[in-house]
Amino acid sequence: MTERQLPGYRRIANEVRAAIAAGEFAEGDRLPSVSALAERFAVTTGVVVRALEVLKAEGLVIARHGSGVFVRRFAAIRRSSPARLSRARWGTGQMIQDADTEVRPRVVDVVVAESPAPAWVAEPLGLTSGSDVLSRSRRFLVEDRPVQLAVSYYPADLVRGTRIALTDTGPGGAYARLAEQGHAPAHFTEYVRGRFPSPVEAGGLELQAGTFVLEITRHAFTAAGLCVEVNRMILDATAYILDYTFDA
Amino acid sequence: MTERQLPGYRRIANEVRAAIAAGEFAEGDRLPSVSALAERFAVTTGVVVRALEVLKAEGLVIARHGSGVFVRRFAAIRRSSPARLSRARWGTGQMIQDADTEVRPRVVDVVVAESPAPAWVAEPLGLTSGSDVLSRSRRFLVEDRPVQLAVSYYPADLVRGTRIALTDTGPGGAYARLAEQGHAPAHFTEYVRGRFPSPVEAGGLELQAGTFVLEITRHAFTAAGLCVEVNRMILDATAYILDYTFDA
Asked: Which of B128, B183, B201, B223 shows a CA-CA span of 20 to 30 A to A234?
């Protein structure tokens, strides 16, 4: 689709986005008024209002009631997988998300349940499809904003009767409990993709229409190569920067 | 936004997406005709057509001229950073993207240039902002579909007069050449985020309006901790699954 074929509000959204990217409007700046933008781009105020709705949905600008529309400060959560999942952390009773810099998401809505494993969970865990797994689902909030949904799955036989089956897994969380059972995670693989959310995910993350998520699926392995957890995380893509370090 | 507030075509897009997710329509299946879908969801054919446009933009379905709309086979490129960047690969003259499973993106439109470094490039490279950097920009195609844009930046003083300044960097690519200069990459950090593309990026990747990209920024460090490359990659999010492995 060429620029010329775009609806007017999309074209204006692109113009304002480019001006932000070029530094004409800096983080925290108030944008010119709707009428000033309409005059600048020679469009109606209605087109500008729709363009700003696009940029709000993208998380690029934010409306403050009564004071205008501002370029959002990009305060993404730095999520460093190697650092946050090191044994030095959960092995000493710390919470994994305490490694996330500056902002520490808090956990709410913990639901523990047993159910038959779907194929994408059963296969890495080495179970036959439909075997019982224990799932722990929860949401992560920063201040009052939901930023992540996560569901961890464990073979039911492995964790039934342990504190992993309780709402509060105790110091160091599920990985510390697995270690106590002789199943300490030693290696992890995370699969990352971007996609549009399902309606349930969009609801849980309070996402506006047209926004998207990062889906991370983590497999945790013991030193012996046994997969003991599959964890699927759905992240508000505007809220996170992921970082991964590795050697040549 | 609740389901009730959504425009009709968004609601129908959600319904069809859910049916695909639930397996009612499997990968490769032809969807029912527009009129059949309109009847099923009690909406006009116009609403169904717009809903299918949404799903096409998401990469979930694909129209085949004259034969209908099909659920796309998800043949994402598996991009395994630790495996593809191992010295065992580039140190023996192989191309990094040969590690990508099944599909091997080919490189086109290589442009080499010298220019002043923007701050986000200068800072990790330990240069003052505006210092000269050599940039190598290129696009990656799978068959004829663009899937990635990438620009690598090197301190100009480090690579001027080497094969890194030529279009063809030779066997093993830029990392092999850096190693020959005594600057072999030993450690990498990749920063991953999802965002909407700039108009230039959308053009280069031939993305439809409303789709999004994964942005990966890689810093390559020598064993001595010197950053010798900053590489920013813009990926069509529907074309890739990234994977990262690390230890506890």
From this structure: B201
